[in-house]
Design goal:
The structure holds 2 protein chains of 2 kinds. By secondary structure, chain A is α/β, with parallel strands linked by helices. Helix content of chain A is 37%, strand content 11%. Chain A contains 6 helices and 5 strands. In chain A, helix 5 links the parallel strand 4 and strand 5. Chain B is of the alpha/beta class. Chain B has one domain: 2-Layer Sandwich (Beta Polymerase, domain 2), CATH 3.30.460. Chain B is 21% helix and 30% strand. A 5-stranded mixed beta sheet of chain B has the order 1-2-5-4-3. Chain B has a two-stranded parallel sheet with strand order 6-7. Chain B is elongated, with a radius of gyration of 17 Å. The chains are: A alpha/beta, B alpha/beta.
Chain lengths: 161, 157
């Protein structure tokens, strides 16, 4: 190694393909502008200058076709559930989902006997990270995104699934 | 104007169509025959001394024990600062009442909500569709004898 490194300029590094791909994926988790309830306010807070999600490479996109991450921020009703599913299907792979707040996790305060609320977004789309709270603070959402980044780093890209 | 006075004026004008005055509700309410509710509402809105320009709320009530459905109209006047509730009682098995959309256009969505959740039919309504539940939902979920479905589309409720 030493012989080769001596011959190369300073800005060349060695790594493996999985690590490199995962690193690029986790450093550009663009999330979709999508909020259905009060968790959306905390999501906006997390994106604004005080908590600044941009420093994790997570910036918002207004279109599902340009997003890698869907943060389901808020209550999902049966009426909205079909639309959530369609938005998720419009996102290009690789795609990830964070369920933010009690409503998206389990239905939250609407869990018992609500006729209109979906009891957890994992009934319709696969969820990678659950962030508890009602609503979660921006710090909690940022931890959720860091957990997701950790998960992305463990992916194997070159193995047949 | 006091609600009692409003009741007396109404029962003088609409003879036999005003059934009862209930004082212990807020605001005090007047029970009206279903077939004359539009006339009563138009009178309350246009009469100078009443001036109920604002329909604060329109809601449906399921009175299962009495075999009835009710529609409650909460009215308010910005100028005279008085309030009153108009109530109509309908047959629970076939709840039909005339729409008051022609009096207050804002009644449109309130009536759609009462239709969606309780199944009260507002005759003459311009656009009586569901407003909160999905369009292919079955039943009216705020009825007291409503049974929740096990499944909706591909997921369980």
């Amino acid at each position: 190694m030493g012989v080769l490194e001596d011959k190369l300029p300073d800005n060349i590094l060695f790594t493996n393909v999985d690590k490199f791909l995962n690193w690029s994926k986790k450093s550009s988790l663009w999330y979709m502008l999508f909020a259905t309830a009060c968790c959306g306010i905390e999501l906006m807070q997390a994106g604004a200058s005080r908590y600044d999600l941009d420093r994790f490479g997570a910036i918002f996109r207004a279109s599902p076709r340009q997003s890698d991450l869907m943060i389901v921020a808020g209550t999902i009703t049966h009426m909205m559930a079909d639309r959530v599913k369609r938005l998720y299907e419009q996102m290009p792979s690789p795609k990830y989902v964070i369920a933010m707040g009690s409503c998206a996790n389990t239905g939250g305060p609407f869990f018992k006997d609500s006729y209109s609320v979906l009891k957890g977004v994992d009934k319709i789309i696969p969820v990678d990270v659950y962030v508890p709270g009602c609503p979660p603070k921006p710090e909690a959402l940022i931890e959720g995104i860091m957990k997701l980044q950790k998960k992305v780093m463990e992916e194997k890209n070159l193995v047949k699934k | 104007m006091e609600p009692k006075q409003i009741y007396e004026i109404l029962s003088g004008k609409f003879n036999g169509k005003i059934k009862q005055f209930v004082e212990n509700t807020f605001p005090p309410s007047v029970i009206v025959e279903p077939d004359s509710v539009v006339d009563v509402c138009r009178f309350l809105k246009t009469e100078e001394s009443m001036d109920f320009k604002s329909l604060i709320c329109l809601s449906g009530v399921d009175l299962k024990e009495q075999g009835k459905m009710a529609v409650v109209y909460h009215l308010g006047s910005m100028n005279h600062k008085h309030k009153i509730a108009i109530k109509v009682e309908l047959d629970r098995n076939n709840p039909h009442v005339q729409t008051v959309e022609s009096v207050w256009p804002g009644a449109n969505w309130y009536e759609r909500e009462a239709y969606d959740l309780l199944g009260i039919i507002f005759d003459g309504h311009s656009d009586l569709r569901r407003i909160l539940m999905p369009e292919d939902w079955e039943g009216h979920p705020m009825r007291k004898d409503y049974v929740y479905p096990k499944q909706y589309h591909t997921w369980d409720v």
